[in-house]
Amino acid sequence: MPRSPQSRSATPTLLPHATDSRIDVGLPAPLGVRIYGQRRAGNGLVVPLIVHLHGGAFVSGSLDSGATVARLLADAGAVVVSVDYPLAPANPFPAAVDAAYAALQWAYRKRAKLAGQGARVFVAGEEAGANLTAAAALMARDRHLPPLAGQILISPMLDPCLGTASLRRSNQGPADCPLAAGWCQYLREPAAAEHPYAIPGRSMRLAGLPPTLLLTADDDPLRDEALAYAGRLNEANVPVSASVLPGPTGWPAALQAVAGAEGPWIEEAGTRLAAFLAQACHREATDPEPNDFPLRKGC
């Protein structure tokens, strides 16, 4: 479950090969980032560079709670820039989206230094961070910068209505639900609920987005909205690979475990991530056929 609003770790625990820093991206305050991995010089390999956005229902989360997914991405072979974006309610939409996009621009400008010459840039996130990931990808498409090699959505939080069968099955819903509370704090202005960058799942125009990996799970309360978005991406001819991992996973809470997560889903998710990054980084320059990334259910 998300922690209390504006939660931050006072003494971050750094994992091996991870360093904390602050970056100036033109916002009122610098953004905290944690960088995992390192560039591989002289071996001729293309190293992916991923901007990662943690979960927390828009109102909680930190670099520590995002470490589980950030480490999965790094273990899949990427250099990862995990971003400590501003939280609601103090910073409602569009503050987090603006920060996500600014961090993405910064990473693109610094890609050679961070991940080596020729690094492909991705954006990834879990739960609310996956919402911000989808929004940042829409912004990059609309503003024609930066060019993205792909987006990775893990247990994405995309539908503020909270009326799907998977949510009802998990005994979560509008009443006393942390997800509902997060949406209310994030969408403080009524007009925000109509903005595609606030609710990418309702965007009327999805064509032109980068290849997408979408991971959900049998016991994920957000499964149905994730698969609905994957279907809409597929209809828009966006190359998409959607996998439903077998439960139990404990998602989305398990994705934000500060002490790390355990379970067979970790290996399965890691395999999917590594395969997606490898394929996306070695794609031909021409646009692929949509069926290059078929919808599929995990075994």
TrEMBL record:
One of its GO terms (molecular function) is hydrolase activity. Gene3D superfamilies: alpha/beta hydrolase. SUPFAM superfamilies: alpha/beta-Hydrolases. It comes from the Bacteria. Keywords: Hydrolase. Belongs to the 'GDXG' lipolytic enzyme family. This is Alpha/beta hydrolase fold domain-containing protein.
